[in-house]
């Protein structure tokens, strides 16, 4: 393990692996707002990205072929993995084997087996593994957890959510399901995770259906998927994720006394809006999204510096991937799928909230575009 843990006042040194849209738009700028963290290297096989972004952030750049040699050099304490989903496991295991901590984008991996391999490699090498669930540090979402737990809306019974966007042909999100492409891996994971932290439980059964409008971009995967998850106590959670309609990001949890609704529930820009309705009386509250990526980096660095186990852990990532796999199986077979018992030990709370003001920077993208195709 790197020596940074014994240096309480030092900064954790990060290499960012993968320079696609999410890395350029949010992750790289976040280091300017993360006081306990330092960007020290970038990895990409795109020569133009390496040249322009290395110059912009004034850090050395490397190809993926140089990854293992770099890890062994001791030049970084942690990696932020922002690669396509099917590469998460390989690059996590390589980092762990070199004694380097891992902050990995969600979904954690494509299969449960890959998740378990990642967890095992990090545990065996005594390095920390965190999955980048930025909303576990967001005030609006964690306040929703507190409100539901308080009993204010009564016993929570129903969760529903819609998370959608238009995704342009050629985008990595349109990779086949076998590579971790599709709406459930990319967007449904937010809805699944929110249902779990709002119900404070794990689903026992799922049933799902896919729909497709026949466009060429959806030849190898779903245009949209709707799923129903049964939770203990016969609570139901439903969601629809889509790559073919206008952008929407809402959730609602209904209890026996009232309901809580969030608009822009999963957003990292602008405001996240919350409505609580009890006895036909509605209270509204807005929360700034802030810099959620800086918040998760700051939190993970604190865990490294203070030798604490992160939440969200690898087990949290595994919990969602096993549900994703069950949803995919149900949609393919048109049959319900039962889930084995799973006990998640730690859940996010408002004590984890880290509010960092949003950056003013609107970075120019290099050989990258947002999901809708806008560069």
Automatic annotation (TrEMBL):
**One annotated GO molecular function:** nucleotide binding
UniProt keywords, alphabetically:
Oxidoreductase
Does the entry feature the keyword Oxidoreductase, yes or no? yes
The cross-references to Pfam families, in alphabetical order and at most eight, read:
GFO_IDH_MocA, GFO_IDH_MocA_C3
- Which family does the entry's similarity section mention? Belongs to the Gfo/Idh/MocA family.
Renumbered to this chain, region (Disordered) spans: 343-375
**All copies of domain GFO/IDH/MocA-like oxidoreductase, residue ranges:** 143-260
Q: Which organism is it from?
A: Fischerella muscicola CCMEE 5323
Q: Which residues form the Gfo/Idh/MocA-like oxidoreductase N-terminal domain?
A: 12-133
Query: What name does UniProt use for this protein?
Result: Gfo/Idh/MocA family oxidoreductase
